[in-house]
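note to self — DONT lose this again. spent like an hour looking for the file last time. sequence + predicted structure for the chain T wanted, 157 res
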Amino acid sequence: MMTHTTAADARHCATDLAPDLSTASAPNDSVQPADRRLATTLAAEDLAEWEGGLSPHDRITCRLHRRWAYQCISSPRHIIAVTGHRWCDDCATGLTVLVDELTRRVELTCPCCHQTPNTRATEQIIRTCEASLHAAHRRVSSTRRTSWPTEKFGQTA
């Protein structure tokens, strides 16, 4: 069965797909700084992707799960066999993902051959997840201490 799409239908669909920036840009005191940073980054990347300047594979946030990329990269929905993203061609299976938030390292390995495919897609996932980790855990400059107190360990300067 074939369907006919009119220009009005196409505009309606495009409007439905456009990112909703209203919730990310409105100030909300109940949102923690890290959550606000995530919301802001999601909104910016949604817009950049929508406008065609950002590849979905270069995002540090996940459009699907609305999280930092490193937090959901292990989801089966992120396996793309055709492009090799989280995929071992030799074993025809999805890769497992290890994200260490302490060391900010990301590792992908095949559960069958225990190897990491040497592909652009694998390198891209590691690079994106590491960037996502750094962005999520970056300190907010307003909370950094710019000078030490003059009193240290009970002594005055």
